[in-house]
Amino acid sequence: MVVLSVPAEVTVILLDIEGTTTPIAFVKDILFPYIKENVKEYLQTHWEEEECQEDVSLLRKQAEEDSHLDGAVPIPAASENGADDLQRVIQAVVDNVCWQMSLDRKTTALKQLQGHMWRAAFTAGHVKADNFHRRFESCCGVPEITAAEGDSQVGFFEDVVPAVRKWREAGMKVYIYSSGSVEAQKLLFGHSTEGDILELFDGHFDTKIGHKVESESYRKIANSIGCSTSNILFLTDVTLEASAAEEADVHVAVVVRPGNAGLTDDEKTYYSLITSFSELYLPSSA
Protein backbone atom coordinates (compact mmCIF):
# COMPACT_ATOMS: atom_id res chain seq x y z
CA MET A 1 0.00 0.00 0.00
CA VAL A 2 1.21 3.50 -0.84
CA VAL A 3 1.83 5.59 2.25
CA LEU A 4 1.90 9.38 2.20
CA SER A 5 3.53 10.95 5.22
CA VAL A 6 1.72 14.02 6.49
CA PRO A 7 4.09 16.95 7.23
CA ALA A 8 4.62 17.46 10.95
CA GLU A 9 3.39 21.07 10.75
CA VAL A 10 -0.07 19.95 9.60
CA THR A 11 -2.73 20.27 12.30
CA VAL A 12 -5.80 20.61 10.08
CA ILE A 13 -7.17 18.32 7.39
CA LEU A 14 -9.51 20.00 4.92
CA LEU A 15 -11.74 17.70 2.89
CA ASP A 16 -13.55 18.06 -0.41
CA ILE A 17 -16.72 15.94 -0.72
CA GLU A 18 -17.57 14.96 -4.30
CA GLY A 19 -14.99 12.49 -5.61
CA THR A 20 -13.11 12.59 -2.30
CA THR A 21 -15.35 11.40 0.53
CA THR A 22 -18.30 10.61 -1.73
CA PRO A 23 -18.45 8.94 -5.16
CA ILE A 24 -19.14 11.39 -7.97
CA ALA A 25 -21.96 9.12 -9.17
CA PHE A 26 -23.76 9.54 -5.84
CA VAL A 27 -23.93 13.28 -6.42
CA LYS A 28 -24.43 13.28 -10.19
CA ASP A 29 -26.86 10.38 -10.46
CA ILE A 30 -28.85 10.72 -7.23
CA LEU A 31 -28.64 14.11 -5.52
CA PHE A 32 -28.68 16.34 -8.60
CA PRO A 33 -31.50 14.54 -10.43
CA TYR A 34 -33.65 14.96 -7.30
CA ILE A 35 -33.32 18.73 -7.70
CA LYS A 36 -34.26 18.73 -11.38
CA GLU A 37 -37.22 16.42 -10.81
CA ASN A 38 -38.63 18.33 -7.86
CA VAL A 39 -37.64 21.98 -8.11
CA LYS A 40 -40.94 23.14 -9.65
CA GLU A 41 -43.05 21.38 -7.02
CA TYR A 42 -40.79 22.70 -4.27
CA LEU A 43 -41.16 26.29 -5.46
CA GLN A 44 -44.93 25.99 -5.78
CA THR A 45 -45.19 24.55 -2.28
CA HIS A 46 -42.82 26.94 -0.51
CA TRP A 47 -43.20 30.09 -2.63
CA GLU A 48 -44.78 32.23 0.09
CA GLU A 49 -42.12 31.37 2.65
CA GLU A 50 -39.44 33.95 3.43
CA GLU A 51 -36.60 31.49 2.91
CA CYS A 52 -37.85 30.53 -0.54
CA GLN A 53 -38.21 34.18 -1.53
CA GLU A 54 -34.65 34.82 -0.37
CA ASP A 55 -33.47 31.92 -2.52
CA VAL A 56 -35.34 33.28 -5.54
CA SER A 57 -33.97 36.78 -4.97
CA LEU A 58 -30.43 35.40 -4.89
CA LEU A 59 -31.07 33.42 -8.07
CA ARG A 60 -32.53 36.52 -9.76
CA LYS A 61 -29.45 38.54 -8.80
CA GLN A 62 -27.22 35.78 -10.20
CA ALA A 63 -29.29 35.73 -13.40
CA GLU A 64 -28.68 39.46 -13.82
CA GLU A 65 -24.94 38.90 -13.46
CA ASP A 66 -25.15 36.09 -16.01
CA SER A 67 -27.12 38.08 -18.59
CA HIS A 68 -24.09 38.30 -20.90
CA LEU A 69 -23.68 34.51 -21.06
CA ASP A 70 -24.99 32.42 -23.94
CA GLY A 71 -28.21 30.66 -23.00
CA ALA A 72 -28.60 32.55 -19.73
CA VAL A 73 -32.16 32.40 -18.37
CA PRO A 74 -33.52 35.66 -16.88
CA ILE A 75 -35.87 35.60 -13.90
CA PRO A 76 -38.52 38.34 -14.05
CA ALA A 77 -39.72 40.07 -10.93
CA ALA A 78 -42.98 38.74 -9.54
CA SER A 79 -46.06 40.88 -9.99
CA GLU A 80 -49.61 40.75 -8.69
CA ASN A 81 -51.20 39.83 -11.99
CA GLY A 82 -52.57 36.50 -10.88
CA ALA A 83 -51.73 32.81 -10.96
CA ASP A 84 -50.64 32.76 -14.59
CA ASP A 85 -47.97 35.38 -13.95
CA LEU A 86 -46.77 33.52 -10.84
CA GLN A 87 -46.42 30.31 -12.80
CA ARG A 88 -44.43 32.18 -15.45
CA VAL A 89 -41.99 33.40 -12.81
CA ILE A 90 -41.73 29.97 -11.20
CA GLN A 91 -41.05 28.38 -14.59
CA ALA A 92 -38.31 30.94 -15.20
CA VAL A 93 -36.68 29.97 -11.90
CA VAL A 94 -36.94 26.28 -12.83
CA ASP A 95 -35.39 26.93 -16.24
CA ASN A 96 -32.61 29.00 -14.68
CA VAL A 97 -31.80 26.28 -12.13
CA CYS A 98 -31.72 23.59 -14.83
CA TRP A 99 -29.54 25.80 -17.05
CA GLN A 100 -27.04 26.35 -14.24
CA MET A 101 -26.99 22.67 -13.39
CA SER A 102 -26.46 21.70 -17.04
CA LEU A 103 -23.23 23.73 -16.90
CA ASP A 104 -22.29 22.30 -13.47
CA ARG A 105 -22.08 25.81 -12.06
CA LYS A 106 -21.08 26.36 -8.45
CA THR A 107 -22.91 29.61 -7.73
CA THR A 108 -23.90 30.29 -4.15
CA ALA A 109 -27.47 31.01 -5.27
CA LEU A 110 -27.85 27.57 -6.85
CA LYS A 111 -26.15 25.72 -4.01
CA GLN A 112 -28.26 27.47 -1.39
CA LEU A 113 -31.52 26.43 -3.06
CA GLN A 114 -30.27 22.86 -3.47
CA GLY A 115 -29.41 22.67 0.22
CA HIS A 116 -32.85 23.89 1.23
CA MET A 117 -34.53 21.39 -1.09
CA TRP A 118 -32.56 18.46 0.30
CA ARG A 119 -33.33 19.56 3.85
CA ALA A 120 -37.05 19.71 3.09
CA ALA A 121 -36.88 16.29 1.45
CA PHE A 122 -35.20 14.69 4.47
CA THR A 123 -37.57 16.39 6.90
CA ALA A 124 -40.64 15.23 5.00
CA GLY A 125 -39.30 11.72 4.62
CA HIS A 126 -39.22 11.97 0.84
CA VAL A 127 -35.52 11.21 0.88
CA LYS A 128 -34.19 8.69 3.37
CA ALA A 129 -30.79 7.13 3.86
CA ASP A 130 -32.01 3.63 3.02
CA ASN A 131 -33.67 4.88 -0.17
CA PHE A 132 -30.43 6.58 -1.17
CA HIS A 133 -28.54 3.37 -0.52
CA ARG A 134 -30.81 1.23 -2.69
CA ARG A 135 -30.53 3.71 -5.55
CA PHE A 136 -26.78 4.02 -4.96
CA GLU A 137 -26.33 0.25 -5.17
CA SER A 138 -28.07 0.14 -8.53
CA CYS A 139 -26.28 3.08 -10.15
CA CYS A 140 -22.85 3.00 -8.54
CA GLY A 141 -22.17 -0.54 -7.40
CA VAL A 142 -21.76 -1.73 -3.82
CA PRO A 143 -18.00 -2.42 -3.46
CA GLU A 144 -16.99 1.23 -3.19
CA ILE A 145 -19.08 1.87 -0.09
CA THR A 146 -19.72 -1.51 1.53
CA ALA A 147 -18.41 -1.83 5.07
CA ALA A 148 -17.88 -4.98 7.11
CA GLU A 149 -20.75 -7.48 7.26
CA GLY A 150 -22.61 -5.50 4.61
CA ASP A 151 -23.22 -2.52 6.88
CA SER A 152 -22.97 0.34 4.41
CA GLN A 153 -22.18 4.00 4.89
CA VAL A 154 -24.50 5.74 2.48
CA GLY A 155 -22.68 8.07 0.16
CA PHE A 156 -19.22 7.65 1.68
CA PHE A 157 -16.26 5.53 0.64
CA GLU A 158 -15.61 2.86 3.26
CA ASP A 159 -12.25 4.31 4.37
CA VAL A 160 -13.62 7.78 5.16
CA VAL A 161 -15.27 7.50 8.57
CA PRO A 162 -12.60 5.24 10.18
CA ALA A 163 -9.85 7.56 8.92
CA VAL A 164 -11.55 10.73 10.18
CA ARG A 165 -12.01 9.11 13.60
CA LYS A 166 -8.32 8.21 13.65
CA TRP A 167 -7.28 11.73 12.68
CA ARG A 168 -9.41 13.21 15.43
CA GLU A 169 -7.92 10.81 17.98
CA ALA A 170 -4.46 11.94 16.84
CA GLY A 171 -5.40 15.53 17.63
CA MET A 172 -6.12 16.73 14.10
CA LYS A 173 -8.92 19.16 13.34
CA VAL A 174 -11.04 18.17 10.35
CA TYR A 175 -13.02 20.59 8.20
CA ILE A 176 -15.12 20.30 5.04
CA TYR A 177 -14.79 22.62 2.04
CA SER A 178 -17.27 21.98 -0.73
CA SER A 179 -19.08 23.87 -3.48
CA GLY A 180 -22.27 22.49 -1.98
CA SER A 181 -23.82 24.73 0.66
CA VAL A 182 -22.92 24.21 4.31
CA GLU A 183 -26.52 23.14 4.87
CA ALA A 184 -26.24 20.47 2.17
CA GLN A 185 -22.94 19.28 3.64
CA LYS A 186 -24.50 18.87 7.06
CA LEU A 187 -27.39 16.90 5.58
CA LEU A 188 -24.99 14.40 4.01
CA PHE A 189 -22.94 13.89 7.16
CA GLY A 190 -25.96 14.07 9.42
CA HIS A 191 -27.85 11.25 7.66
CA SER A 192 -25.24 8.53 7.50
CA THR A 193 -26.32 4.95 8.19
CA GLU A 194 -23.81 5.19 11.06
CA GLY A 195 -26.00 7.95 12.38
CA ASP A 196 -25.20 11.61 12.69
CA ILE A 197 -21.42 11.91 12.26
CA LEU A 198 -21.29 15.70 12.23
CA GLU A 199 -19.45 15.59 15.54
CA LEU A 200 -16.41 14.33 13.64
CA PHE A 201 -15.99 17.68 11.89
CA ASP A 202 -14.82 20.95 13.37
CA GLY A 203 -16.53 23.10 10.77
CA HIS A 204 -17.73 23.59 7.20
CA PHE A 205 -16.94 26.00 4.38
CA ASP A 206 -18.71 26.63 1.07
CA THR A 207 -18.45 29.16 -1.77
CA LYS A 208 -19.52 31.98 0.54
CA ILE A 209 -15.89 32.11 1.63
CA GLY A 210 -14.73 31.99 -1.98
CA HIS A 211 -14.52 29.64 -4.94
CA LYS A 212 -12.37 26.55 -4.65
CA VAL A 213 -10.18 27.42 -7.64
CA GLU A 214 -9.12 30.74 -6.08
CA SER A 215 -6.07 30.73 -3.80
CA GLU A 216 -7.47 33.55 -1.65
CA SER A 217 -10.26 31.20 -0.49
CA TYR A 218 -7.72 29.01 1.29
CA ARG A 219 -6.13 31.98 3.01
CA LYS A 220 -9.57 33.01 4.25
CA ILE A 221 -10.21 29.49 5.52
CA ALA A 222 -6.90 29.46 7.42
CA ASN A 223 -7.72 32.84 8.91
CA SER A 224 -11.17 31.61 9.94
CA ILE A 225 -9.72 28.51 11.59
CA GLY A 226 -6.97 30.53 13.23
CA CYS A 227 -3.97 28.77 11.74
CA SER A 228 -1.35 29.23 9.05
CA THR A 229 -2.09 27.93 5.55
CA SER A 230 0.98 25.70 5.97
CA ASN A 231 -0.82 23.96 8.85
CA ILE A 232 -3.50 22.67 6.46
CA LEU A 233 -3.56 19.53 4.33
CA PHE A 234 -6.26 19.72 1.62
CA LEU A 235 -7.59 16.51 0.07
CA THR A 236 -9.38 16.91 -3.27
CA ASP A 237 -9.87 15.07 -6.55
CA VAL A 238 -9.70 18.27 -8.65
CA THR A 239 -6.23 19.44 -9.67
CA LEU A 240 -7.40 23.03 -10.31
CA GLU A 241 -8.43 23.19 -6.67
CA ALA A 242 -5.17 21.57 -5.61
CA SER A 243 -3.21 24.16 -7.59
CA ALA A 244 -5.13 27.05 -6.00
CA ALA A 245 -4.53 25.65 -2.53
CA GLU A 246 -0.81 25.20 -3.23
CA GLU A 247 -0.56 28.83 -4.32
CA ALA A 248 -1.73 29.70 -0.81
CA ASP A 249 0.98 27.44 0.71
CA VAL A 250 -1.52 24.75 1.70
CA HIS A 251 -0.29 21.15 1.60
CA VAL A 252 -2.21 19.08 -0.96
CA ALA A 253 -2.89 15.47 -1.86
CA VAL A 254 -5.01 14.50 -4.86
CA VAL A 255 -7.49 11.71 -4.18
CA VAL A 256 -7.89 9.12 -6.93
CA ARG A 257 -11.26 7.37 -6.68
CA PRO A 258 -13.33 5.14 -8.99
CA GLY A 259 -15.34 7.32 -11.34
CA ASN A 260 -13.18 10.42 -10.93
CA ALA A 261 -11.79 12.30 -13.91
CA GLY A 262 -8.48 10.95 -15.16
CA LEU A 263 -5.22 12.73 -14.47
CA THR A 264 -2.58 13.65 -17.03
CA ASP A 265 0.87 12.10 -16.79
CA ASP A 266 2.23 15.45 -15.62
CA GLU A 267 -0.40 15.67 -12.89
CA LYS A 268 0.36 12.13 -11.75
CA THR A 269 4.02 13.02 -11.51
CA TYR A 270 3.60 16.41 -9.86
CA TYR A 271 0.96 15.75 -7.18
CA SER A 272 1.02 13.43 -4.20
CA LEU A 273 -1.70 10.86 -4.90
CA ILE A 274 -3.74 8.64 -2.60
CA THR A 275 -6.51 6.17 -3.37
CA SER A 276 -7.70 5.85 0.23
CA PHE A 277 -7.60 8.00 3.35
CA SER A 278 -5.95 5.04 5.07
CA GLU A 279 -2.81 5.78 3.03
CA LEU A 280 -2.13 8.94 5.03
CA TYR A 281 0.49 8.45 7.74
CA LEU A 282 0.41 10.86 10.67
CA PRO A 283 3.89 11.04 12.28
CA SER A 284 2.32 12.47 15.44
CA SER A 285 0.31 9.28 15.91
CA ALA A 286 3.31 6.96 15.64
From TrEMBL:
<comment type="function">
    <text>Bifunctional enzyme that catalyzes the enolization of 2,3-diketo-5-methylthiopentyl-1-phosphate (DK-MTP-1-P) into the intermediate 2-hydroxy-3-keto-5-methylthiopentenyl-1-phosphate (HK-MTPenyl-1-P), which is then dephosphorylated to form the acireductone 1,2-dihydroxy-3-keto-5-methylthiopentene (DHK-MTPene).</text>
</comment>
<comment type="subunit">
    <text>Monomer.</text>
</comment>
<keyword id="KW-0479">Metal-binding</keyword>
<feature type="binding site">
    <location>
        <position position="212"/>
    </location>
    <ligand>
        <name>substrate</name>
    </ligand>
</feature>
<keyword id="KW-0963">Cytoplasm</keyword>
<dbReference type="GO" id="GO:0005737">
    <property type="term" value="C:cytoplasm"/>
</dbReference>
<comment type="similarity">
    <text>Belongs to the HAD-like hydrolase superfamily. MasA/MtnC family.</text>
</comment>
<protein>
    <recommendedName>
        <fullName>Enolase-phosphatase E1</fullName>
        <ecNumber>3.1.3.77</ecNumber>
    </recommendedName>
</protein>
<dbReference type="GO" id="GO:0019509">
    <property type="term" value="P:L-methionine salvage from methylthioadenosine"/>
</dbReference>
<dbReference type="GO" id="GO:0005634">
    <property type="term" value="C:nucleus"/>
</dbReference>
<keyword id="KW-0378">Hydrolase</keyword>
<dbReference type="InterPro" id="IPR006439">
    <property type="entry name" value="HAD-SF_hydro_IA"/>
</dbReference>
<dbReference type="InterPro" id="IPR027511">
    <property type="entry name" value="ENOPH1_eukaryotes"/>
</dbReference>
<keyword id="KW-0028">Amino-acid biosynthesis</keyword>
<comment type="pathway">
    <text>Amino-acid biosynthesis; L-methionine biosynthesis via salvage pathway; L-methionine from S-methyl-5-thio-alpha-D-ribose 1-phosphate: step 4/6.</text>
</comment>
<feature type="binding site">
    <location>
        <begin position="178"/>
        <end position="179"/>
    </location>
    <ligand>
        <name>substrate</name>
    </ligand>
</feature>
<keyword id="KW-0460">Magnesium</keyword>
<keyword id="KW-0486">Methionine biosynthesis</keyword>
<dbReference type="InterPro" id="IPR023214">
    <property type="entry name" value="HAD_sf"/>
</dbReference>
<dbReference type="GO" id="GO:0043874">
    <property type="term" value="F:acireductone synthase activity"/>
</dbReference>
<comment type="pathway">
    <text>Amino-acid biosynthesis; L-methionine biosynthesis via salvage pathway; L-methionine from S-methyl-5-thio-alpha-D-ribose 1-phosphate: step 3/6.</text>
</comment>
<feature type="binding site">
    <location>
        <position position="18"/>
    </location>
    <ligand>
        <name>Mg(2+)</name>
    </ligand>
</feature>
<dbReference type="GO" id="GO:0000287">
    <property type="term" value="F:magnesium ion binding"/>
</dbReference>
<feature type="binding site">
    <location>
        <position position="16"/>
    </location>
    <ligand>
        <name>Mg(2+)</name>
    </ligand>
</feature>
<keyword id="KW-0539">Nucleus</keyword>
<dbReference type="InterPro" id="IPR023943">
    <property type="entry name" value="Enolase-ppase_E1"/>
</dbReference>
<dbReference type="Pfam" id="PF00702">
    <property type="entry name" value="Hydrolase"/>
</dbReference>
<dbReference type="InterPro" id="IPR036412">
    <property type="entry name" value="HAD-like_sf"/>
</dbReference>
<feature type="binding site">
    <location>
        <position position="237"/>
    </location>
    <ligand>
        <name>Mg(2+)</name>
    </ligand>
</feature>
